[in-house]
């Protein structure tokens, strides 16, 4: 089971390409998108939790992946800041038959030492790290062992990391929010662009 968490404010084409790269691997039984309620290391989201959830659900409905692609709202229902370590504990209890792999960008991987419960988190999951634009995947001093293929995650229950392919795009949600959402058509999936337009989101941009 691959887990991809984030604020998704909004979910954009770079997020979509990462998800497609994950789902292209037949070894991945399921990809769970986990929108956070209150980001622990950055400012609050511009769109509400329910709006961000609805955008993800609209996008998933267009993907024809069935149960391989789902949205998990547990962090939206949990009060206080969203800590990934709590989410991983809950998922391991609910799905003991699946090997959890946390999907993330190179920028998030670099900030991992600052995450709440980072040391414990590294005992709960493996990490699949994707570069984006200038944020290329770099080796790490974290107590994690690098592997060369997804199948090697079966060697142990946690503590490994794999570098995924890097995208040439530097696209980020914060970058989108600096311009009027009317210009986002090329940078957001159609279902999400339509939802943003219909509900007049991000107009303060």
Short account of what is shown:
This protein has 205 residues and is α/β, with parallel strands linked by helices. The protein contains 8 helices and 7 strands; from the N terminus they run E-H-E-H-E-H-H-E-H-H-E-E-E-H-H.
General description of the model:
With 205 residues, the chain is an alpha/beta fold. It has one domain: 3-Layer(aba) Sandwich (Rossmann fold), CATH 3.40.50. It is 30% helix and 15% strand. The chain has eight helices and seven strands, in the order βαβαβααβααβββαα. A seven-stranded parallel beta sheet has the order 3-2-1-4-5-7-6. The radius of gyration is 16 Å and the shape is globular. The relative contact order is 0.20.
Task: Give the secondary structure arrangement, pairings included.
Layout (H helix, E strand, L loop, with lengths): L1 E5 L6 H11 L7 E5 L13 H13 L7 E3 L2 H4 L6 H11 L6 E5 H5 L7 H4 L4 E5 L14 E3 L12 E4 L9 H4 L13 H9 L7
Helix pairs in contact: 2-8
Share of β-strand residues: 5-15%
Helical percentage: 25-40%
Q: Determine the structural class based on helices, strands and strand pairing.
A: alpha/beta
Query: CATH topology, which one?
Result: Rossmann fold
Strand order of the largest sheet: 3-2-1-4-5-7-6
Total domain units: 1
Count, helices:
8
Radius of gyration: 16 Å
Overall pLDDT confidence: 90
Uncertain parts = none
Tell me the major beta sheet. Answer: 7 strands, parallel
The N- and C-terminal alpha carbons lie at a distance of 36 Å
The total of beta strands comes to 7
CATH class: Alpha Beta
**Order of SSEs:** EHEHEHHEHHEEEHH
Specify the CATH homologous superfamily.
HUPs
CATH architecture: 3-Layer(aba) Sandwich
Global geometry? globular
